[in-house]
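sorry for the late reply, my laptop died twice this morning and i had to redo everyting from scratch. anyway the thing you sent over, i finally got around to it. pasting the sequence first so we're on the same page, its 296 residues, then the predicted structure underneath. double check i copied it right bc i was rushing
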Amino acid sequence: AQVVREAYPAEVRARILGLVRVWMALAWVAAAAVGGRIMQAVPFQWVFAAAALVGVASALVFSRIRLAAPHTVEPPVAVRAVPGLLRRDPAYRRFLAGFFVFGFGAWLAAPVVPILLVDRLRASAFQVGLLGAVTSAAWVAAYVLWGRVLDRRPAPVVLVRIFLVGALAPVVYLLARNPWVVLVAGAADGVASAGLDLGWLSAVLRHAPPDQVRTYVAIYNTLLGIRGVAAPLLAAALLPQVGTGPVLLAAVGLMGLGALVMRAAARQARPDHPGGRLDPLHAASLQWATRHAGEE
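ok and here's the structure:
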C-alpha cells in the first residue's frame, strides 16, 4: 500500500491498478494453459521450479523501483493506541464498519452457494464451470470500469454502488429456480469483486495520513481476517438448523446494511480527498519527475 501510494499519482491510481489487475489475470490464464501443457511432457517439479524463478525475478524487479518522492517512514504504533486513532477519525471508523458488515454478509452467503447449486438447482459440471467463467470474465472487465470511476469519485461513494451490485448475487441465488439464472449472480459477483479489490485500497489511502498508511492498512486487514473466519463458521452452524433460504436472507440484509453505513461514511468523507485531486505527496512527486525529465 505504501509503494502504491508513493509510486502512482492519485489522479490515475485506480486506473493504473485496474490495468495491472487485468494483465495479472491474463497472465494467470496464460500460465495455467502453458503450465498444463508443459506438465504433460515433463515432471511437475520442473514447472514448480520455473514458477519459483519467475517469482524471484519479480521480487528483483520490485526491489529496483525508485520513487520520485522520498519514502515516508512511519513511527511505530502500539496496539493499545488503535482505539484512540479510530476515535479521532470517525470517517475511517464508519468506512471500516460498512466494509465489515458488508463483508460479513458476503462471507455468510459463501458456504450456501455450492450447497444450493448441487442440492437444489442440480447444476451440471458444465453449468458450474460456465458460472466460474462468467464470474471471471466480469471480474476482469470490471477492473477497467471501476478504475475510471474511482479516479473521478471519492471511494466511499463508489463503494456504496459496489456493495449494491454485490448484494444482487445472494438475491439471485435466493430466487433462482434453475442453474442458468445464477449466471446473473456470477456476473454481479465478478463485477463487485473487482470493485472491492480497487475500492478498499483507494479508500484506505485517501483516509490515511502519509505517515500512517501501514497502520490504517493493518487495521483494515485485521477486521478482514476476523469476518473471513467468523462468518463462514456461523453459516456452517446455521445451515443445518434453518436451511439455505434464511441464511441468504440474513446475508442480503447485512450487505444492504453495509451499504447504508458506507453511505454515511461517504457523507463524512474528508473534503481534501475527492477523486482525481492530488495530495501534497503526489504534487511533489510530479514536480520532481517533471523537473528531472526536463533536465534529461
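Residues 271-296 have pLDDT under 50 and may be disordered.
thats about all i looked at so far, will dig more tmrw
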